[in-house]
Fold:
Amino acid sequence: MKKDVNFKTNINVYNIVHTSGYKINHEERLNIEGKTIRHSTIEAIDKRNFIFKKINIANFYIEVEENKRIFRGPPKYFENENDYFHSEEFIKIVNKYGLLSATHKFVSSMHSIDGVQEMIYTNFAESYPSDISSDLSIDRLNKELICSELLAEWKILFGEGKKKNNEATWSVQDYFLNKFFNKNVLYIDQEKNEMKIFHTCLGGALAVYKYSKNDPELQTCKFCGSNFVDSSKGNIQKFCSESCRAKHYRQKKLDSEIEDLTKKYGDNFDFSPMKYLDIIRRSTRFICKNCGKKYLKNKSDFQSNPTCSICNHNISD
Ligand SMILES: [Zn+2]
Ligand SMILES: [Zn+2]
Structure:
């Protein structure tokens, strides 16, 4: 019998992030095929001080998408593309997540994948650098970690993925995303019938994420208002998490319980202190509007005798 091939990837990647932060250099001259071309680059301010930071790709994707909204508007905060890429808003993202290609050279210099090396790549995604059996001397890291890259790579990342009819969009060159996709390392585990993708850098991890989720649009959680990526089949997800779904359900239940009680007894009692757990425990929590005494009573006891013991205030009076 033929087994299905599983496609495995990792939501996390370790990136180096320079603690000094990054700056944009407009005067970088690159020599390409004998011609000197001027480019803008992003580079680490202090190349020798960095940390390894575990990054959740979904969070990175969400932050990139949120920032696209900032510069596209409405409202329009930036006149044009360049204003945005020279802004604080933009450099904040780079300072937080590091460069797209920072670790690529270093990770891909680990030997080609076999059973043992597979572990090394897995560790790079999950537990780097503590469990890795590789030369981590500062000299080697300084030599192999990339501290500067073209600003153009980021401009592409922020470009429009799907073209909408006649809407003015900046040109997107799929070439760039393909380039990052190709920075990943593929490995087929024939015993498990699994194809694995190991990320060697932040840009590679993001390219896989974008493709595997089909360039997802951001949704806003109905409960907490935060943005999330809808990973459901029919794009029907309304909440960012199971926890928000549950909280929304509880809030609705609590609101309707308070509304019911207020309709019946609201002239004399205030039910706003009610909590969701009170409903589960079949209790009623309320304040006498006449004397201010607080009560927590068994629901059926309260309903058979809805009075305040202090002022003997009875709703049937
Ligand atoms: Zn939420
Ligand atoms: Zn009272």
In short: The radius of gyration is 28 Å. Residues 6-216 form one domain. The CA atoms of residues 18 and 49 lie 6 Å apart.
